[in-house]
């Protein structure tokens, strides 16, 4: 059913929530991304939430996808458009979002393979970034991003943390430079304190200011 927009009502803030954990029950990142979305909704009023659970499967870049990618849009066959359909859908979700909330479990010092595959699907020249004589320019500006990072033994931004800095770089490359990191790291060392600290961090953030800026 299509929701009716009341004339004069404040437009809903559009949130994209991306989850990547291979766990559902007991996942720290899923619990925390839900808390962030709830906190934004409480501070911002009406929200519209799109969920993308990449753990359920993201296609990988292969020869057919690359051929479709490098074929000019007006020359693509129906088969090539089908190859790019999931990428197009994921890019559409990002383009529509005012706020992006990403759950980032750290697997083997980096991001889960499914989250890397999502990045590969949304990073497309001429669509989410473009090359200029002065270098690449991101085309997804004006969005606030929350990275909810959880790990067993790696501290956020430690020399062996290849997840958080990489995601900051990729998001900035696409134009999303306002990135807030919420950390539930080193859980195998500090236990539940890590998640408690992350929950406290979420509770301390001023989502009303951030969301107004993102929605402007």
What ranges have pLDDT less than 50 throughout 5 or more consecutive residues?
1-7
Mean residue pLDDT: 92
How is the CATH topology named?
Rossmann fold
Total beta strand runs: 7
Highest CATH level, the class? Alpha Beta
- The CATH architecture designation is 3-Layer(aba) Sandwich
Label the structural class.
alpha/beta
- Estimate the strand proportion: 15-25%
* Major β-sheet strand ordering: 2-1-3-6-7
**Element order, helices and strands?**
EHEHHHEHEEEHEHHH
- Name the helicity range: 40-55%
Biggest sheet layout? 5 strands, parallel
Describe the structure.
This protein has 216 residues and is an alpha/beta fold. The protein is 41% helix and 20% strand. The chain is built from nine helices and seven strands; from the N terminus they run βαβαααβαβββαβααα. It has helices spanning 28-44, 63-70, 78-83, 85-96, 113-122, 164-173, 187-190, 193-204, 207-215, and strands at residues 13-19, 47-53, 99-105, 129-132, 135-138, 144-150, 178-184. The strands form two sheets. It has a five-stranded parallel beta sheet with strand order 2-1-3-6-7, sandwiched between helices. The protein has a two-stranded antiparallel ribbon with strand order 4-5. α1 runs parallel beside α8 (193-204). The chain is globular and about 55 Å long.
């Amino acid at each position: 059913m299509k929701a009716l927009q009341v004339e004069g009502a404040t437009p809903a803030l559009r949130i994209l929530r991306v989850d990547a954990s291979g766990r559902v029950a007991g996942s720290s990142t899923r619990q925390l991304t839900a808390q962030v979305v709830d906190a934004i909704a409480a501070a911002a009023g009406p929200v519209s939430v799109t969920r993308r659970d990449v753990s359920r499967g993201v296609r990988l870049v292969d020869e057919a996808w690359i051929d479709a990618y490098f074929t000019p849009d007006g020359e693509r066959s129906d088969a090539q458009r089908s190859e790019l359909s999931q990428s197009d859908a994921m890019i559409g979700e990002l383009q529509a979002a005012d706020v992006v909330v990403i759950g980032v479990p750290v697997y083997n010092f980096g991001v889960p393979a499914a989250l890397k595959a999502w990045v590969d699907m949304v990073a497309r020249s001429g669509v989410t970034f473009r090359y200029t004589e002065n270098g690449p320019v991101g085309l997804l500006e004006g969005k606030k991003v929350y990275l909810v990072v959880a790990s067993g033994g790696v501290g956020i931004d430690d020399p062996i943390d290849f997840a958080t800095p990489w995601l900051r770089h990729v998001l900035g490359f696409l134009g999303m430079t306002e990135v807030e990191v919420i950390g539930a790291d080193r859980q195998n060392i500090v236990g539940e304190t890590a998640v408690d600290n992350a929950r406290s961090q979420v509770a301390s953030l001023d989502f009303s200011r951030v969301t107004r800026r993102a929605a402007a």
